[in-house]
Design a protein that fits this description.
Helix 1 crosses helix 2, helix 4 packs across helix 6 and helix 8 runs antiparallel to helix 9. The chain starts with a helix and ends with a helix. The longest helix has 34 residues. The protein folds into 2 domains: 55 residues, Arc Repressor Mutant, subunit A; 138 residues, Tetracycline Repressor, domain 2 (Orthogonal Bundle), CATH 1.10.357. By secondary structure, it is mainly α. The protein is built from 9 helices and no strands.
Length: 203
């Protein structure tokens, strides 16, 4: 006889698969239809599930879109531990170049869904709040690194909080330029950004 304990993991696995199925199909709908024309009905039909199933996993189309984008940024942030490793100037510059290049590569690889997301930024408070959260995470990653770099004597004393806000705005602009294909030289953009960032803060 199957126990309740053994059934629970199976239900959880099935739920995760359904959630993933909704996200994957929703991404296709968003890219094909654009933000404004995408509806829960179109996502539901594409996925082959009922309204109740969609709403048991997500609050609405904004929640679905932000979850799609969150997965990419989570992968990006989880792979960026290198910012905490540098112990000399050369390593520091290399780590930041790789960090910025990874961000721009994300924009290039996921430009189709990011264009939809960018369109949603001006139409949805939910999506706008989500982007603010992403930018804050970017800012915090850089701030933590630069604070450690100051402690190691790699960068001069300066207001890390204000400095990282400026750096985040620069990287955000480069990210959206990449998404919108305004700059295809990602390596050149990363090099220029590193040069701008560190010209004034290295010892």
């Amino acid at each position: 006889m199957e126990t309740t304990k053994s059934r629970k993991p199976r239900r959880h696995l099935r739920s995760r698969k359904t959630r993933r199925l909704i996200l994957d199909n929703a991404k296709e709908v968003f890219i094909a239809e654009g933000y404004s024309k995408t509806t829960i009905e179109k996502i539901r039909v594409k996925t082959g599930v009922g309204y109740a199933t969609v709403f048991s996993h997500f609050k609405g189309k904004d929640d679905i879109l932000t979850n799609i984008v969150t997965s990419y940024f989570n992968d990006f942030f989880e792979s960026q531990d290198k910012l905490k490793e540098p112990r000399n100037e050369e390593q520091l510059i290399k780590a930041y170049k790789e960090f910025i290049l990874s961000l721009l590569e994300l924009g290039k690889e996921q430009k189709a869904i990011m264009k939809v997301y960018q369109d949603a930024l001006i139409q949805s408070f939910v999506v706008a709040d989500h982007w603010e959260h992403v930018a804050n995470n970017l800012c915090e990653s850089i701030a933590c690194s630069l604070t450690e770099n100051q402690g190691d004597g790699l960068v001069r004393d300066f207001d890390v909080f204000e400095g990282t806000k400026v750096i985040t705005r620069l990287l955000s602009a480069l990210f959206w330029d990449t998404v919108n294909e305004k700059d295809d030289d990602l390596e050149g953009a990363a090099n220029a950004a590193v040069d701008i960032i560190f010209r004034g803060i290295l010892r």
